[in-house]
Amino acid sequence: MCDSQSLRSFNATGEVEHVHMLSQHIGELFNNPLYSDVRLLVESVEFPAHRVVLASRSEYFRALLFGGMRESKTDLVELKDTGSASFSYILKYIYMGRLSLSECKSSLVSLVSRNSFCAEEIDIFRAIQRWHELNPNESVRDFVEYIRLPLMTLDQLLNVVRPSLLVHAEAILDAIQTKNESKLAGLNYRGFLLPEENVATLRHGATVVRGEMKANLLDGDNTSYDLDRGFTRHPIDEGQGNGIIVKLGQQTIINTLRLLLWDRDLRSYSYIIEVSVDEQDWVCVVDHRAYLCRSWQTLRFPARVVRYIKVIGTHNTVNRVFHLVSLECLYSESVVHFYNGLIVPTANVATIEKSACVIEGVSRSRNALINGDVRNYDWDSGYTCHQLGSGAIVVQLSQPYVIGSMRLLLWDLDDRSYSYYIEVSIDHQKWEMVADKRNELCSSWQLLVFEPRPVALIKIIGTYNSANEVFHCVHFECPAPDTEVEKVRPSSRNNTLPPRQGSPQLDVKPTPTTPVPTDDTPS
Q: pTM value?
C-alpha cells in the first residue's frame, strides 16, 4: 500500500472523502502476510489474515477470535468442514467487499449443500433468486437441488417460492406433503458447526430450562460437589414426565455428549437422552435404561442438528432422584465404532481415568486392580483378592461397552496356580459366563477372547489356589490390547461384530443392588 494518491475528492462541505481508497487499502491486505497476526488453515492451505479485519466483517470470526475460545490464543487456526477454494472466495469478499458469483458457482453450490450452512431457508432461496436475476444465463438447477423446501413455512412456499418459477410445482407439493406427514425431528435441518467445542456453556448461550438447582449444571465446575450442592436433579417417576432440559444458544450439529453422574459413593443410575430442535418433537439418541451407569459418561450418536437436550433419569440404586453434575455436548471428529448403539472401545476402559471402579474384592487400595501398575506388587500389597468359596472380585465400568476380550494378571511371585471363571452383566442381576477356567491350572497373564456383547460389570470368581484358600488378581483390563487379541483371533482387525441373540431389551429396569438411602446420600 502507498500514500501517494492525490487528495482530490472533496464534498460540498469541504471534507475529504476517500472511502474508495480505504476500501482499496484494506483489500490489498487480502492473502497478504503484511501485518498478519493470524493464519487460517483450510485443507492444508494457509491463509494469512488479520484478526481485526475478520472480526469487524464477520460475526463468526468475532466470536471465534475474540470470544474467549482457544482460537483466540493461537496464531494458527484450523477451519474444518470447508474447502480451501470456497474459503478463498469468502475471505476475498471479507477483505474486498465484492464477489463474482459467476466465477465461484461450484463453490457456492457446495456451500449451500452443507448442513453447517446455517441460515433461514427462505433467505438462502432469496439469495439464489437474486443471483439468478443478475446471471440470467446461468442455470440455477444445481442450487435449487439443495434448497430444503420442507423447512419453509406454507406461506413462503406458496407466496415466494411458487411465483419465482425456479422450483417445479411438484417439488413444492412434495415439500408440503413432507411437512404434513413427517415429524419435525425428521426434517433435514441446518445448524452451526463448532468441531471439538463444548457448546453447552453459558458463554455459548446455553441455559437449563428444566430441572431443580439449575444453576449448577453448566457452571463449568465438575469437582466441587457433595451431598447437598453442585448438581442438578429431578425426581424419577414411572411416566418419565420429568427430566433435565438444556437449551443450546443456537441450532448446532453435535454427535457427542459427556455427562457426569453424581459419584461420591458407589451408586449407579440408568437414563435416556432425547434431543429436539423445537422442544416439541423429541428423538431418543441414547437409551441406557437397561444398564447400570456411574460417574463420567461419554456418549456418541450419528451427528444431527440439536437445540434442546433432555436427560431423563429412570433409575437410581439408592433413591428415586436423578443427580447430574455436569453436561457437555459437542461435535467430535474422532473415529468411534458402534454396535447396537453402544461404543466398541479400542483401548482399555477398565481404568480409573475412565471412571471404572472395583466394587467388590479385598485390597489395601480399592482400585489397585485397575490402576495400571503391573510391576509393584508383593506378598502384602498390589493385588485384589477374595476368599475361595465366598465372594468375588467385581469391576464396574462407567457405562456399557461392547466388549469381546479381557486380560488379567494373576499373582505370580512363586510357582502357584489358580482356577477361576468370569461372568459379565449389564444390571448386576443377570450374569453371563464368558470364560471358564475351573478345570485348568492358570498362572500369570491370562488372555480371554469371547463373543462381543454389552458389558457394564465384570465378576471374577476364583475356585482354586494351589498354595492357599485365597484368589489373588493383580491387574485387570478390557478390552485386551489388539496386538494380543490378534494372535488368537486374526479376524478381529476387521472390527466387525456378529449379531447376538438375546440382546437386552431396553424396557428392562435394573433392580437396586446397593443399600437403602441414609443421611449420607444426596437428596
A: 0.75
Tell which residue, 250, 268, 242, 495, has the closest CA to residue 399. Answer: 268
Question: Judging by DSSP bridges, how do beta strands 38-42 and 45-49 pair with one another?
Answer: antiparallel
Q: What is the CA angle 154-160-165, rounded to 5?
A: 115
For the record, the C-alpha cell of 392 comes out as 468375588
Q: What are phi and psi of 396, to 5 degrees?
A: -110, 125
List the chain pLDDT tens, one digit each, 523 residues.
444 444 455 555 567 676 777 778 888 888 888 889 999 999 889 999 999 999 898 878 888 888 777 788 889 999 877 778 878 888 988 888 876 666 677 777 877 888 888 788 898 899 888 888 888 888 888 888 899 999 999 999 999 999 999 999 999 999 999 888 877 777 888 998 888 999 999 999 999 999 999 999 999 999 999 999 999 999 998 765 689 999 999 999 999 999 999 999 999 999 999 999 999 899 999 999 999 999 999 999 999 999 999 999 999 999 999 999 999 999 999 999 989 889 999 999 999 999 999 999 999 988 999 999 999 999 999 999 999 999 999 999 999 999 999 999 999 999 999 999 999 999 999 999 999 999 999 999 999 999 999 999 999 999 999 999 999 999 999 999 998 888 886 544 444 444 433 333 323 233 333 333 334 445 5
Q: Give the C-alpha separation, 332 to 80, whole Å.
A: 12
Phi, psi values for residue 329, rounded to 5° = -140, 145
Identity at 459, one-letter amino acid code:
K
Identify each DSSP E strand in 150-295 by its residue range: 207-210, 232-235, 244-261, 269-276, 282-293
Q: Quick one: angle between helices 84-96 and 19-27, nearest 10? A: 150
Q: Coil, strand or helix: which one is 463?
A: strand
The torsion angles phi and psi of 194, rounded to 5 degrees, stand at -125, 85
d(CA 422, CA 445): 15
Q: Strand 321-330 relative to strand 232-235: parallel, antiparallel, unpaired? A: antiparallel
Antiparallel, parallel or unpaired: β 445-465 and 38-42: unpaired
- Residue whose C-alpha cell is 474486498: 96
The three-point CA angle 514-324-252 to 5° equals 140
